[in-house]
Queue: 2 jobs
Job 1
Amino acid sequence: MSRFIARTVLVTGGGRGIGRATCLRLASEGAAVAVADRDIEPAREVVKEIAATGRTAVALQADVTQAQAVRTLVADAEKALGPLHILVNNAAATSATTIETTGEADWDVEFDVTLRAAYLCMKAVLPGMVERGKGTIVAIGSVNGRVYVGNPAYSAAKAGLVMWVKAMAVEYGPKGIRTNLVSPGSIRTENRSWTERMERDPQIFEKLARWYPVGRVGTPEDIAAAVAYLASDDASFVNGAELVVDGGLTAGMGPFVQEING
Ligand SMILES: NC(=O)c1ccc[n+]([C@@H]2O[C@H](COP(=O)([O-])OP(=O)(O)OC[C@H]3O[C@@H](n4cnc5c(N)ncnc54)[C@H](O)[C@@H]3O)[C@@H](O)[C@H]2O)c1
């Protein structure tokens, strides 16, 4: 497919995991990609991978929780690639697993990177997109924003992101900008949470698979494919939607159904 020929995209947290897979997927369909990450080295590696396929990419260092850094990031991305057509708001992290262990600093960090960064990045790309009357924004949510599965501050922030995306869709849809959300289930990445869980239990993904009606947890590529759909013209009538990509985890309660049916 070549849905993103002559399109430019900025992916936050593009150096690893879902962000990396999204950069590679959109580039494979023709996009020129700004790979933004707080850690520049992994972003540079992604750029190398993209360059090896003959596509264009640039690595940009930025902490997306910082307003000035985000403004500079968008300006640098546009200087390198031209006006931005697509923003993928992906960077996020969580560490506090329970309410008891959620300190004020955890609350601030998790809300900042999940919600404030989304607000900052979207606000920064909006003027250009509005001027051109065209743009697409995809935010990465989580099943944590839908049902409680641990990490309370992160979950509350992800739930907030759902409403922020709806607000964007309603206020900026008339200006030619579509905003949507992809909400992944458990995705096999090396983020901090999964690394800690893997250290505790190397079989964690296999154990979790039984909760998933499709019999497995997800891959970064599963999410990248959903992002690519929402970012493309195939989704030109999709605005303000939450696309849940969780193998059916939140469709119901499988173990409950098994119990009740005997
Ligand atoms: N992995 C999962 O199971 C899962 C499930 C649901 C939702 N998600 C969401 O998907 C997204 C990506 O998760 P992942 O598992 O790929 O994470 P990851 O840790 O593998 O990658 C995230 C990247 O974001 C970067 N980053 C973190 N904070 C940043 C900041 N302030 N500024 C700039 N870059 C920053 C990191 O350096 C890293 O390269 C997140 O929004 C996460 O909440 C992940």
Note: Residues 8-261 form a domain with the Rossmann fold fold (CATH 3.40.50.720).
Job 2
Amino acid sequence: MARYTRRATAEQVSAGIDLSGTNALVTGANTGLGMETTRVLALRGANVTMACRDLDKAERARRSILDTAGGRIDASQLDLLELDLNSLARTRESAREFTRRGRPLHLLINNAGIMIPMERRTADGFEAHFGINHLAHFLFTNLLVDSLRAAGRARVVVLASAAMDMATLTPALQDLNWEQRKFNGFRSYGDSKLMNLMFAREFNRRHGKSGIVANALHPGVIATELARDQSLPFVLMGMFALPFMKSVPQGAATTVYVATSPDYQTRGGLYFSDCREKKPLHKLALDDAVCRAVWERSCELTAVET
Ligand SMILES: NC(=O)c1ccc[n+]([C@@H]2O[C@H](COP(=O)([O-])OP(=O)(O)OC[C@H]3O[C@@H](n4cnc5c(N)ncnc54)[C@H](OP(=O)(O)O)[C@@H]3O)[C@@H](O)[C@H]2O)c1
């Protein structure tokens, strides 16, 4: 099993891996970690669908990846899919559109996410972290199961976060939608990231044996656009922390490692940080009964049958 330092980049951890004939889909591929993940998977030969809410931004990102690749990525390797996780109906439509394209899906990277200080609701009335980071990805992934099955062997890689440590989730799943408490952006972000990890574990329990494994990870702390809605003091604090943060190529390393390492083609239900298996920080993360309860509640809220 290869060992990498926390400074390893996505290119370094995938050196020598040939992804020709592999189809990948990355959510939130137009910037930050998703864009770097897209670039490196394509560099290794994969066809990558960039699933983004703004197709103009997505096309600019696609062009920039192609322009800087020096001919090592063919334009036909990158295509776009409109995906707005702010609406379950639109998320369903995107999954339908991908399925219509008839492409087996070997790698699904659930990367898109928000981290906002203010209370915001999705088109369906869900608290935005819960709705976008967790519920819409839950729906999208479940609607893509046939495409994942068609690949024979497939991997789902879920971007969680060490911020799950701030989660307020209770075993009884009280007030998941933040209607009865004073809102706290970091805590609700933490809840959504804990649910991302729980989703990966439960998805893996259900599908791992039939060849679709799911793993979750913390990418590190990276200066991306994730903090774009945060307060000035938060941003200033972040600037002081810059020397200790990872670069974007380093931040995408764990995602690319978990997506491409031969060690994890058939192993799932795990959590990673710095390209290593880690024990998750939150005590509920490994509670199978709560993982199942989150899954069942998510089925009810998204009207998905699994
Ligand atoms: N950066 C970190 O330090 C860090 C640490 C731990 C975990 N993470 C996780 O890593 C993942 C990637 O984050 P990042 O740092 O690369 O952030 P980023 O630069 O802000 O990228 C986030 C991506 O998500 C997309 N997105 C946001 N809302 C969406 C929606 N409603 N529908 C579809 N796409 C949407 C964004 O699209 P637009 O550009 O159109 O908004 C963007 O492409 C996130 O899940 C985040 O929680 C990041």
Note: The domain at 15-302 is CATH 3.40.50.720 (Rossmann fold).
